[in-house]
């Protein structure tokens, strides 16, 4: 079967129309998203939910309250998320970072995205994916998150992304120049929901994306 070639913008419309991304990341505050982005590393949301509930009760997610905790106290609070020793230190590193900006997220949002990304990646425990989640959902910077769900979706649609994170992101970003911050946030949510919905090869054999092939860059003849 010949598949119809679609742009990334057309893919977004398909995903948005078929998936309910409303409330995909249920968080009441920006700080909850920050700590959740760390806690979700190498685990699932069920485990993270327990850790976040404990963290809210102990700190109300405020970095000033987190700083008052010892590493050992924080480790016990987030224990259910796994890798709690490393994650507790990463959260502490972020708290120190935010302290240099007086915990003022509005001040951080005034800085260029590239500078913020460099600062976040310089923190021990913060990788590219976590940094981009914070940039996209907390600091209001337009970016594309290259996670396992994105790689899997692109692969099924005929695009094998480069192995390195930055190279994969650089390949995709030119096709996102007309996306708004909101649509980039929704795109990532839809990509994750797609991965969570279609888990097996059989799932991919007959779904709303089966007739399509993704094409990056300008269409032929444009």
User: Biggest β-sheet, characterized?
Assistant: 2 strands, parallel
H/E topology pattern: EHHHHHHHHHHHHHE
Helix content: 55-70%
CATH class of the largest domain: Mainly Alpha
Pairing-aware structural class of the strands and helices?
A: mainly alpha
What is the gyration radius calculated from CA atoms?
Answer: 19 Å
Mean pLDDT: 93
How do the strands of the widest beta sheet line up side by side?
Answer: 1-2
Q: And the CATH topology of the largest domain?
A: Endonuclease III, domain 1
Distance between the termini: 25 Å
CATH H-tier superfamily of the largest domain: Hypothetical protein, domain 2
Annotation field: number of helices: 13
User: What's the architecture of the largest domain in CATH terms?
Assistant: Orthogonal Bundle
How many domains comprise the coordinates? 2
Shape, per Cα inertia axes: globular
Strand content: under 5%
Number of strands: 2
Q: List segments where confidence is low: pLDDT < 50 over at least 5 consecutive residues.
A: none
What report would you give on this structure?
With 222 residues, the chain is an all-alpha fold. The chain is built from 13 helices and two strands.
Describe, in short, the structure shown:
The protein has 222 residues and is mainly alpha-helical. The chain folds into two domains: 4-23 and 144-214; 30-137, Hypothetical protein, domain 2 (Endonuclease III, domain 1, Orthogonal Bundle). Helices cover 57% and strands 3% of the residues.
């Amino acid at each position: 079967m010949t598949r119809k070639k679609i742009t990334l913008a057309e893919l977004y419309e398909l995903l948005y129309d078929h998936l309910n991304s409303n409330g995909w990341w249920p968080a009441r505050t920006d700080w909850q998203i920050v700590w959740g982005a760390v806690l979700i590393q190498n685990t699932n949301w069920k485990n993270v939910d327990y850790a976040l509930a404990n963290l809210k009760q102990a700190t109300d997610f405020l970095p000033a309250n987190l700083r008052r905790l010892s590493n050992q106290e924080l480790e016990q609070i987030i224990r259910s998320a796994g890798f709690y020793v490393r994650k507790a230190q990463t959260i502490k590193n972020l708290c120190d970072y935010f302290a240099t900006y007086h915990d003022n997220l509005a001040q951080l949002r005034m800085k260029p995205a590239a500078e913020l990304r460099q600062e976040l990646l310089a923190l021990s425990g913060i990788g590219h994916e976590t940094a981009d989640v914070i940039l996209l959902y907390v600091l209001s910077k337009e970016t594309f998150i290259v996670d396992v769900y994105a790689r899997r979706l692109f692969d099924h649609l005929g695009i094998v992304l480069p192995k390195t994170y930055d190279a994969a992101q650089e390949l995709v970003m030119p096709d996102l120049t007309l996306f708004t911050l909101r649509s980039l946030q929704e795109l990532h949510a839809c990509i994750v929901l797609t991965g969570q919905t279609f888990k097996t090869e059989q799932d991919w054999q007959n779904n709303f994306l089966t007739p399509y092939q993704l094409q990056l860059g300008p269409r032929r003849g444009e």
